[in-house]
Write a structure and sequence with these properties.
about 100 residues; alpha+beta; 30s Ribosomal Protein S19, Chain A; elongated
């Protein structure tokens, strides 16, 4: 469910202040734990390290990401594939 238009997008003000203090084209990675923060046009061109629960994944912000949440680009679960005898035999056949 999306946030009410009356309230506006949720943006972390501390994160925006950190981005405003950086120069355009700066390669430093800003660590972010707030996955619910909405990406704004001011963030485009910077690299943010979004926390996935274990580590900070560096994510370069592009124009197409504006309006999405930071957490959408840092998956929290790692898919290893479905198991079972059939999957093992198919993997052996491919080799």
């Amino acid at each position: 469910m999306s946030r009410s238009l009356k309230k506006g997008p949720y943006v972390d003000l501390r994160l925006l202040n950190k981005i405003k203090n950086l120069k355009p084209g700066d390669k430093t990675v800003i660590k972010v734990w707030n996955r619910a923060c909405t990406i704004t046009p001011e963030m485009v061109g910077f690299t943010l390290g979004v926390h996935n629960g274990k580590a900070h994944l560096p994510i370069y912000i592009v124009e197409n990401m504006v309006g999405h949440r930071l957490g959408e680009f840092a998956p929290t679960r790692k898919f290893l594939g479905h198991g079972g005898k059939m999957a093992k035999s198919q993997a052996a056949d491919k080799k």
